[in-house]
Each structure stands twice: as structure tokens, then as C-alpha cells.
UniProtKB/TrEMBL annotation:
Binding-site residues, substrate: 95-98, 117
Transmembrane segments: none
Assigned keywords, A-Z: Magnesium, Metal-binding
Protein name: Putative 4-hydroxy-4-methyl-2-oxoglutarate aldolase
One function term, GO molecular function aspect: metal ion binding
InterPro entries recorded: RraA/RraA-like (IPR005493), RraA/RraA-like_sf (IPR036704)
Entries under Gene3D superfamilies matching the protein: Ribonuclease E inhibitor RraA/RraA-like (3.50.30.40)
Lineage: Bacteria, Pseudomonadati, Pseudomonadota, Betaproteobacteria, Burkholderiales
Record-linked PANTHER family: 4-HYDROXY-4-METHYL-2-OXOGLUTARATE ALDOLASE 3-RELATED (PTHR33254)
Pfam name, any one: RraA-like
Cofactor: a divalent metal cation; Mg(2+)
Amino acid sequence: MDSVSPPAQSLLKAARALSTAEISDALDYFKLPGSALGIGLQAGEPRIFGPAFTVAFVPVDTATPGTVGDYLDNIPQGAVAVLDNSGRVDCTVWGGIMSKIAEHRGIAGTVINGVCRDTAEAQEVNYPLYARGRFMRTGKDRVQVSTVGEVVSLGDVRVTPGDYVVADADGVVVIPQARAAEVFERALRTREVEGKILEAALAGTPLGEARRQFGYHTLQRTGH
């Protein structure tokens, strides 16, 4: 696979201020998927920004059961744990001990295609935890890690290791690493234009006129 140059640090710094809505609009502009339907904030700070560290789970092999959480030791500081438990809501793959260790290690947050538990402990340390919901039943002896560092999914959104994961109060978006620079640049441009529209409207310009003046209706349209 060809190597992908990461966005410049200055661009990443600016992109950290973007909302998921602004990024979602930019993804639409490039006709890219990325909005993870049904996954929302369960505990902690409502903000995540970082590269994906991916883990997939499968039903447990009763003959040779595997582990559920030892991969945590390998997640780099600033990365986002993206856990694919196939959307299962009958058992969790993330709990309180993991939230506290992850926060201590400087992991950016956790996003789960499935459910979590011990949300009070994540809230206690303000650790960002996103999932399809909360359920107390353990995944131990029910699921096990199948792959680490491979392609996973958050519902209908494909996540490759290194893709950028952004989350806020509105949900979670995933930006392909290979397209991150242009997506972030487009989202920042849209933010700039929308700021001008708002400024003009608050100064007395009719909203429709302000939108026409700054090309609002073309912001999410590609040129092809």
C-alpha cells in the first residue's frame, strides 16, 4: 500500500476546532462516507480528535478463549480506540478500569460499534466514551479480540488504522487518512464562509441575501 503523507501540523491544529457537522459537510462535498450513525456520547468530555487504533471482536472460541482488553497497552498517546463489536448490544467490550487507564495514558477517547459499561468511572475522569449505548453485562467469555490494527467498521463506516476520528455532542465522523488534508481544508473554508454570512446577517443583511453573497448554496456541491 502506498504511504500517505499526514496533514501538516498547522492544519491539524486548526482542524481540532472543527465540529462534526462542519466535517460532515466537507465529506459530503467530496462524496465520502464517514458519519457513524447511532454512535453517541456515553460519558466524559464530548470531544475526540485523533488517529484511529482499531480493534475487532468476534464471538468467543470456547476451546481457546482469547483476551478482551490487553491491546490497551499498545495504543499510542493521542490515538483513538476504535472498537468493532459488530454492533452487539448484549455485552460490553469496555469498562471502568479501561477508561481510567486510557485517561492516565493520554489516549484521546474510545468509540465503540457496540456498548460500554461503568460510565460513572469514565465520567469521574472525564474520559471521552462513545458507543451505541450502555449495558452492564461483561463481554468476558462472550467475545474476544480477533484482530488489532486491521480495517474495522462503525456500522456502515469503514475505519482504517490512522484514519482521523472526530467526535462531539452531535456524534462521530471518520475521515480517511488519504483524504484528510482536503477534507479539513474544505471544512475550514466552509466555517470561514458561514462566519461571514452570520456576521452579515447579524449586521442587518437579510439572511437570503447574505447566503447568496457568500455562495452558501454551493458550499456542499462538488464541481463535478
